[in-house]
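Folding Problem: From Residues to Backbone Shape
Fields: amino acid sequence; protein backbone structure tokens
RECORD BEGINS BELOW THIS LINE
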Amino acid sequence: MLPIKIIGTGVYAPGAPIANAELMQLTGLNFDHEKLESKLGIYTRHIAHLRGLDETTADFATQAAKAALNDAGISADALNLMIVGTDTPEYITPATAILVQGRLQQKENWCSSFDVAASCASFTIALDNAVRLMATDESLKYALVVGVYNMPAFLRKDDAFGYSIFADGAGAVILARENTGKSTYIGSQMLTDGTQHDYIGIYAGGSRNPITKALLDKNEQGLLSLKPLPGDRNVRLWPIVVKQLLKKYKLNIEEVDHFIFTQINRSVIEKVMESLQVTMDKTTTVMDQYGYTGSGCVPMAFHHAVKQGKIKRGDRVLFMASGAGLAVGSNLFVY
């Protein structure tokens, strides 16, 4: 166990919420909103460019970070480490975390800032990295970890599926050293399957496929779905990872007080909780308010669970996230 404590949380989503009917009006696209609501549980979301807002990934991350700093009651200058978890960065380079550091601290500072890009598992993996760095370097007193998503910026105009699901948002946590021993980071379990790298992703703009006129003419920019994802992937995968994580740290499922899963599909979460033989009151879902916010969704759901009193100090909490690639990250800690 590592003596690191979450002392603040914050969220940010741009503009007024957009309900499903208004989304179809704003985009001129049609989708099955009844299925979207009944199966995935998505009713509203926030999308900056559809509200005419000039805000992107670094803006979302900075606003969530400010909210978390305010909640923690510390200044931005106190931060020694900033990690942004995202697969929709502001730029290919420099890292989004470097921009956030500049906006928050506004000067050269003794602070490490970098991104973690592991699709929708980016936040959980970033959190694990932050905790372990703090545990091995006593000069790192406070850390900021942000999960942020701006996938709508990469959607093609005719992508009805993408617009119905993906949304903008960010969640942030502030970490500090814990001296009382009540709050601890227990550990993590990661899983990767890189043979699935060509299922869904943003394949243009990197070194393999630079943006060219020919590529744009073929409409191959932005998010592409190249192969169908296995329909039962998360229903099969999440329980396996949860059980491996608990086995690793010699805990029983009954000893976990709250579970936070990737917020892409409420019915999947219900099936996973049933498989784990855990009641739904031990999890939190926020896709009804935010749609699917990728690496932002786990810290956003965690923030709401804490503020609603569903997660209390001393509770054991389990984060479970997965995304394209395939990348999976999980965390287990005492809040």
